[in-house]
Amino acid sequence: MSTGPEDGLPDLRARLAAYEGRVAASAGVGKDPVNEPMIRHWCEAMGDTSPAYRGPDAVAPPTMLQAWTMGGLSGHTDRSEAYDELLALLDGAGYTSVVATDCEQEYLRPLRPGDPITFDAVIEAVSERKTTTLGTGYFVTTRMDVRTRGELAGTHRFRILKYAPRSRANRPNPPTPRTESSAAAPARRPRPVVNRDNAGFWEGVAAHRLLIQRCTACAVLRFPWLPGCHACGSQEWDTVPAGGAGTVYSYVVMHHPPFPAFDPPYAVGLVELAEGVRIVSNVIGVPYDKVRIGMPVRLEFLRVDAELELPVFRATAEGEG
To answer: Is the pLDDT at 81 greater than 70, yes or no?
Structure first.
């Protein structure tokens, strides 16, 4: 039976659940209206050159949705006390660390320069107690509805984990070499997050096909998979299979932290495919310290356990097809 820092506080889960549905921010106002300088800075940082974000008919990149609601260093004055109370309750129960885990966004109408921003936020959910690699804690999800001129422009869900870090004695140890007599089950690789936007990619991997999205309006290829085209904004697309050839565009060598199912050091490459898009994956077939920028690689599919296969890239000899 798992234990946590709140043992002796049997009503904690009920107290946390009481915050579900409570207002986290009410009638918030964006510190700036949608504006061209912020759009330009965002596009430069993202390397997004779409003409849709420039000129007299420009719209803001949809993924900027949260940016228009941020309070900066001075924060917002319209934040309710409920969210701070919830975090304080978790702090008091021993869950003093926090990490952002993921966000989900839904876009309902485009935002244009000059649009004023208002928003409301609610504490949507507090999970049951969960045990993770970092430690034991609770996932807290907030939902923010972003509006302009009275219309709902989009919804942003943001999830954090408030947790108690594992004690040093209970942290995973670096992987040790396995022997034929070892009876311990191998650690499982983390599972990829599969959603409606990328399910087709993982179906392709299961069939040993690396599928690249192609906009059917302007024929631009894109990877990773996205709901819409970064070049023209169209939401219509099909796929083309990658041929498998590529080169190492950049790479890192992972030494730390040790993590179950991984055996550092190992090389993680940003591979540029012959089709022109780039993908992050492991570079195999050579020692980690022999990986080099420009090295030719070839796509393979690696089965890491009974349920999971992943695309990886094996170093090849120069000129090998």
So the answer is: yes
